[in-house]
Amino acid sequence: MENYLRKNFDVQPKRPSEEALRKWRSAVSIVKNPRRRFRMVADLAKRAEAQRKRQKLQEKIRIALCVQKAALHFIAAGNRAEYKLSDEVKQAGFHIEPNELESVSRSHDTKTLESHGGLEGLAKKVSISLKDGVVSSHVPVRQRIYGCNKYAEKPSRSFWMFVWDALHDLTLVILMVCAAVSIGVGIATEGWPSGMYDGLGIVLCIFLVVLVTAVSDYRQSLQFKDLDKEKKNIIVQVTRDGCRQKISIYDLVVGDIVHLSIGDQVPADGVLISGYSLSIDESSLSGESEPVGITKKRPFLLAGAKVQDGSGKMLVTSVGMRTEWGRLMVTLSEDGDDETPLQVKLNGVATVIGKIGLAFAVLTFLVLTTRFLVTKGMKGMIGQWSMDDAVVLLNFFAISVTIIVVAVPEGLPLAVTLSLAFAMKKLMNDKALVRHLSACETMGSATCICTDKTGTLTTNHMVVHKIWTCGETRTVQSKGNLDELKSSVAETVLDILLQSIFQNTGSEVVKGKDGKNTILGSPTETAILEFGLNLGGDFKVHRRESEIVKVEPFNSVKKKMAVLVSVSDRAGFRAFCKGASEIILSMCTKIMNSDGKVVALSDDQRRDISGVINGFADEALRTLCLAFKDVNDVSNSDSIPEDNCTLIAVIGIKDPVRPGVKEAVQTCLAAGITVRMVTGDNINTAKAIARECGILTEDGLAIEGPEIRNKSPEELVALVPRLQVMARSLPLDKHTLVIHLRKHFGEVVAVTGDGTNDAPALHEADIGLAMGITGTEVAKENADVIIMDDNFTTIVNVARWGRAVYINIQKFVQFQLTVNIVALILNFASACISGSAPLKAVQLLWVNMIMDTLGALALATEPPHEGLMKRPPIGNNENFITKIMWRNILGQSIYQLVILAILNFNGKSLLKLSGSDATDTLNTFIFNTFVFCQVFNEINSRDMVKINVIRGIFDSWLFMAVMVSTVAFQIVIVEFLGTFADTVPLSGELWLASILAGAGSLIIAAILKCIPIGTQKEAAAVTKNHDGYEALPSGPDLA
After folding, report:
1. Which SUPFAM superfamilies match (predicted)?
2. Measured CA angle at 968 (ends 962, 973), to 5 deg
C-alpha cells in the first residue's frame, strides 16, 4: 500500500506542483460524496480562472501606472468641469464625491490632485487636519459616505448547505430509495404500520448520519472562517484626535493619516504627506518587481503595495472595494489553500480500502443471492415469486450497499481537516496563527529550528543598562545613576547625546489620552528614547531645534541608521549615526572627552572601546554606538556622510531571556530538534544568550556571518553540522543556511523572521515563522505561521501540536481499519456460511457513524501530551501505516472476529437462548458486542504503544463526550428502537456479557503491545548525530 501511496498520492507541503495535484485527483476512485470529500480541496479550474482574472487586473493597473495619455487627461478634465456634489455628501460636511476621490489615486494624475488644491485642498475637502487627523466620533459618517475598508467575500455557507452536501452521498441516496421501496412493499405485504418499520429505520438512521455529519462540518467551517478573518487583520498606525495610535485595518477610513515604515503593507489608496527615502514595491498589484520611489512629484500610494525602504505618512483617499487591491482580493479568495500531504495520503488510503470494500460488497450480494436462489431451486420454488422474496432480495441489496457505506472511509481525509481545524483553533488561543494548513503537519516533522534572538529568546522589553562615554563606563539602572551621569559629563556632551537620541530615531514619543508619554517604535528605539527622557530630554523640544533634511532608515543589511539635520545655532548641518558597535566605531576617527571637546581617537583608545563593547556583550547586553559629524555642505552628496565621525557613546541594552525558554530548548533537544540561533547582534552577546538558553554546547560552533560568506561549499558541508550560533548575520546568510540544511542534510527546517529582508528565508524554509509583534507585513505574508507573542515557547507548542495532528490521525486510521476489516469479513463470512448477514443495514449505518464522524471527533481532536516531545521527529519517508499499527489492527481484528464468529455460529447454546425470539436476541447480542468492541478499541487507540490508555482520558472532554453519547445511544437503539433497528431488549446478564466481551479488547491490546516490533533503524548501531547529540530513532513507530 505504501508504494502505491508514494507513487500516486505524494505532494510537497509547500508549493506542490500542478502535476502532483492533478495526479492524485485522477487516482482517486470510489467516492461516495464528492461534494463533501473534496470540499477542502482546491478547485484547480477555478484557481486557473482566478489567476487569469488577476493577470488581467494587473495588466490594467500596470497600464494605468505606466501610461498616462493626454487624451485621458483631457477626458478627466472634461469630467471635472461637470462635477457636482450630491446632497448626501454636502450634509455630511464633505466637499468631494467618493468616485472623484477614488480617481485621484487611481489615475496617478498630479493635475487631478492640483485641481483639488493639492494635498492641503484634498484634506479640507475630506474635512480633516493634516496635523490631528480624523476625529474618532466622525468615523461612522465617513464609513457611510466613503465606505468601509473591507473587501467583498464569498457569503458564508449556511448550516443547511452542509446538510445538502451530506445528502449527496450516493450510497445514502441508494439506501433512501431502498428504504422507500421497502416501505411500499412492506405495507403491501404486512399492512400498516408494521410493514413500514424496516424502511423507516433506515430513513431515521440516514437522517441521524446526515445531521451529525452536517453539524461536524459546519463547526469546522466556522473555525476556518474565524482564522481566515484573523489572518487578514493588520494593525496600522494612524494619527487620530491629535494622537498617534494603533487600529485594525478594518477600522481605517477616508481621511485617516497613516504612518508607514519598512515592511508595512499600504492599507488603502492614498497621497503622500511627508516621507524619507520612501520606496514602494507594487509587484503584488502590477506584477512589476521594480521598486517605485514615492516623492512630492509622485505622491500616490496604492493599497496592497509594500514599503521596501524608508518611512512616511499618507492621507487615505479610498478604502475597501474602491481600491484596485480590493478587486484583486476577490480573485485571491477563489484560489483556496492547497491540500496538505496528509489529506492527500488519506485520500489514497480511502481509495484503496474503498476498492476492497466494493469487492466485498459485490461478493456479499452475489453469495447471498446465489444461496437464496439455490435454496428456492432445491425446494422446487424457483418459478414461484412473491413480494416476500422481493423484500429479501431488497434487504440483500441494502446490506451490500451499507457494506460500501462502512467500507469506503469517506471520513479519513476529512478527519485530517477536523484535526487541523481543532489544532489551529487551540494554537490561536496559544498565540500562534497558522496561515497555511500544511504548516501544522510539517511542524511535526521539524528537525531544526533556526531562531532569532531578540524578542524570541529574549523578552523584547529592553532598557539601557550601561553606557560608556567620555572614557568612563557607568551603570544607569536608577535615578541616582542618571543624576551621577549628568553631573559627571560636560553639558556639551549631554546636549549632543540627547540630540543624537531624539533626532536619529524612527520612533515617536506621543501623549496618550491619559496624558502619559507613550513611545511608539521598535523595542531598541523605545529603550534609547526612554533613556533620553530619563536624562531630562524632551522629544518635541529637540525635534523643533533642528529640521530633518535627510533620513537613511535602519535596515538589517547596513545595520545602522543615519539622519542629517540642519543646526540652529550655526550655519551648516549635522549627521547623526547609530547602529552596530563595530560598524559605527570603524567610521569614527574622533571622540568627545570629559570637557566636551572633540579630540582625535588614538589606536589605544580604539582598543579600549572595543574591549568595552566586548565586555558589554559578555554580559549579554546588546551594544550600540552613537556618533555624529558636522557637515558644511551636502548639496553634492546623495547619501549621508559616514566617515571621520565623532564617537559620542557606547550603549549597552539589557534584554533578559524569556522565562521558560531554557526549558523549551531542552524540550526541543529531547525531541530530536536542533535549535540554532541566527542573530545580527555582536558574537559575544549572542554566545552569552545562547549559553543561558542552553543552545550553545561545549563542542558547538559560534561563528559570524561574514566568516560563513567566505567559506567554500565543501567547507560549509563540514562546518554547518556543528553550527549552533550565527552572529552578525545578514538575512542572506539565514537564507543560505536554510538552503544548506535542507538540500545537503535533508533537514526539515523551521525558521523565524521579522524583517522585510527575512522574506526569502521564510519562503525557502519548510516552515516559516513570522513574529506577530515585531514582524513586518512582508515577513508575515511570506510565513506559514505567525507567532503572535514572539515567544520561542510558542514555537515549541506549534511543533507539539504538529506531532499531535499526525499521531491523532494514525490513531483514527488504526481504529477505522479495525472496524472495516471486522465488519467486512463478518458479513461476508456469515453470508457464505449461513446465507444471512448478522449486522443489518440500520445497524451498519450506526456503526459507520461511530467510526466515521464520532470516531474522528474523539480521536482526531485529542490534545497533545508531553510524551510527544520525548520522541524523534516524524520522518518524511516514514510509512504512514506503521508495523505497530498493523500489529494492533490485525490483533484486534482477529480477537473481534473470533468472538463474533463463535457467537454467530454457536451463540444460542453458549448463551442458553431458546424460544421464538432466540435468533433476534442472538443477533442483537452480536450487534451489541460488536459496538462495545469498537467503543473499547477506540479507547485502545488513544495510545498505539503504551499499555496504560486511560491516563489523560479525562483531559479530552470531547473524547469523553463521544464515548458517553455512543454508549447512551446504543442503549436507546437496543432497548427502545428495536422496531426500527431490528433489535430486541436484552437482559442485564446479556448487557454485562456484551460489555465484558468488548472490554476483553483492552487485555488483548495490552498483550499485543508486549510483542516487539523491530525496525532497521532500531537495529542499527547508535551513532553520533551531526548536532553533537545522541542520535534518536526516527519515525513514529516508537510512539
Report:
1. Calcium ATPase, transduction domain A, Calcium ATPase, transmembrane domain M, HAD-like, Metal cation-transporting ATPase, ATP-binding domain N
2. 120
- Assign 45 to helix, strand or coil: helix
* Best CA proximity match to 827, nearest among 297, 362, 492, 382: 362
Which of 5-19, 466-480, 747-761, 907-921 is predicted with the least confidence, judged by mean pLDDT? Answer: 5-19
φ/ψ of 330, rounded to 5, equals -65, -40
CA dihedral 648, 652, 653, 656 (to 10 degrees): 180
Q: What's the CA gap between 611 and 338, in Å, rounded?
A: 53
CA-CA distances (angstroms) from residue 920 to 183, 194, 838, 916, 985? 21, 17, 10, 9, 10
DSSP 945: S
Measure the CA–CA gap between 508 and 677, rounded to whole angstroms.
Answer: 31
- Give CA–CA dist 392/410, Å, rounded: 28
Is the predicted pLDDT of residue 398 greater than 60, yes or no? yes
- Answer yes or no: is pLDDT of 286 > 80: no
pLDDT at 1027: 36
Q: Which stretch of DSSP H or E encloses residue 115?
A: helix 110-115
**Encoded amino acid at 103, one letter:** S
- CB neighbours (10 Å) of residue 226? 13
- The H or E element that residue 475 is part of is strand 472-475
pLDDT category at 899 given cuts 50, 70, 90 is: very high
In the chain, the percentage of residues whose pLDDT exceeds 90 is: 25
Alpha carbon of residue 910 to chain centroid: 56
pTM: 0.79
* Confidence band for 1014, pLDDT divided at 50, 70 and 90: low
* Three-state SS letters, 679-696: CCCCHHHHHHHHHHHCCC
CA distance 61 to 300: 13
Cell of 122: 484634498
Summarised one tens digit per residue, pLDDT across range 240-269 is: 888 888 899 999 999 999 999 888 889 999
Mean pLDDT of the chain: 82
Residue 695 has pLDDT above 50, yes or no: yes
Over range 810-827, report the average pLDDT. 86
Longest alpha-carbon distance in the chain: 126
DSSP string, 616-644: HHHTTEEEEEEEEEEES--TT-SS---SS
The catalytic residue positions are 452
Taking the CB of residue 373, how many other CB atoms lie within 10 A of it?
A: 12
Encode 1018-1038: b = buried (16+ Cβ within 10 Å), e = exposed. Answer: eeeeeeeeebeeebbebbbbb
**Sign of CA pseudo-dihedral 678, 681, 687, 691:** negative
1030 — pLDDT class (breaks 50, 70, 90): very low
d(CA 208, CA 191): 26
Q: Cell 505618512 appears where?
A: 313
Q: Is 21 helix (H, G, I), strand (E, B) or coil?
A: helix
> Nearest to residue 811, comparing CAs of 850, 845, 861, 847?
861
Q: Can you tell me the distance from the alpha carbon of 137 to that of 134, in angstroms, rounded to the nearest whole number?
A: 9
Cis, peptide link before residue 193, omega less than 30° from 0 = yes
> For 1002-1024, what is the mean pLDDT?
66
> Would the CA dihedral through 491, 492, 495, 496 be positive or negative?
negative
Q: What one-character-per-residue DSSP string does 263-324 give?
A: TPBP-SEEEEEEEEEEEEE-HHHHS--S-EE--SSS-EE-TT-EEEEEEEEEEEEE-GGGSH
The answer to whether residues 665 and 607 touch, using CB atoms and an 8 Å cutoff, is no
**Cα torsion angle, 992, 993, 994, 995, sign:** positive
Assess contact for 993 and 911: CB atoms under 8 A. Answer: yes
pLDDT at 78 over 60: no
User: The cell 427502545 sits on which residue?
Assistant: 976
Say how many CA atoms lie within 13 Å of 513 toward its Cβ. 5
The answer on pLDDT for 781 being more than 70 is yes
Measure CA of the first residue to CA of the last residue in the chain; give whole Å: 21
Close Cβ partners of 783 (under 8 Å, ≥ 6 residues apart): 435, 753, 762, 768, 769, 770, 775
